[in-house]
Amino acid sequence: MIKEEVFELEQKYIAHTYVRPPFVLEGGSHSTVYDTEGNAYLDMVAGIAVNALGYGDPEIVQTIQRQSALLIHVSNLYHTAPHVRLARKLCETSFADKVFFCNSGAEANEGALKFARKWARVNFGEGKTSVMAFTGAFHGRLFGSLALTPREKYQAPFRPLMPGVRFAEFNNLEDAREKAGDDLCAIFVEPIQGEGGIHPAAPEFLRGLREIADQHNALLVFDEVQCGLGRTGYLWAHQGYGVEPDIMTVAKPIAGGLPMGAVLMTDRVASVIEPGDHGSTFAGGPLVSSVAEVVVGRISDPMFLAVVRKKGKFLENLLRDMQKSSSHVVDVRGKGLMWGIELDFEAKKVVEAGYERGLLTVNAGPNVLRLVPPLIVSEEELNRAVEIIYDIIENI
Fold it and tell me: Has this prediction a pTM greater than 0.85?
């Protein structure tokens, strides 16, 4: 199908919720994708931090082929082995005792909200339903998760949203303390804010939130949908901080590009959840769980994570050198292979110019260029990407 036909059919049949670039992708290998006209693009987006193992990974392809010939879907009415093995692996490599599977990051945060409210109700009675979130946060676009995402553009058309949410300033522990109270059931926070501009939490901030949650008998929820599963060079981003949550939400990279989310929780949270409290027809199906087993197994290998940390330091050095050389680079922030380049002009100009240079990037807010490449990206590819970005910035 030629690209003009795709554009025409999309305009006619697809709801207009995205603005897409003027090409049609049809293939990929390692850290590169290809369009229908044979153009190659070095990918620093990875499907928005999803394709951690890149494109065309042989083990993922073989797993899909093998499992699809057995069972793709039977629903959660029945036992299957893959989701049980995956849950065991997730618990063994984290703080968690139990897992609830779903289909996306927003769904994971919706589930975490429900579990937190029920936990508070069972243990402390009525009225303990408030949730604290933070400026710059992004937790999803469903009604509960959207209520935790303080963006006027996102929220305004859909109000009224879920009530009971209060916002404190990110990385401002005193503000969080002032806005806490015994009516809190949960504190939601991203250890590294993604859509909000790539802002890492300060270690003392996360430690302080743990103390606030304990003081007010609330649950601490880490949203690691974007920053989790190896992205920072640690399997889970919070492991680099030495602070453990009561609940963690994950999604994006967990199933190699297939839709999956998960809510990881301690036994004290899981103990209040009963059959019928929550559910999902598609969640944790045998196909997607089989692929997730491969992804989690590969990324949780200490040698794999050590290489991600090494490449992350290599990328950090490139970006800091670029910052020193360019008056247009206001700041660079990040960890591992999750970085933001704050510019003194709109980042979309670099994104659009990159298409002509065979480079895919994405913004994180108006003035921040986001780099979240496949975790298997090479240092040579990282160097090439930064060279292109620097050239675009200086000549734009």
Answer: yes
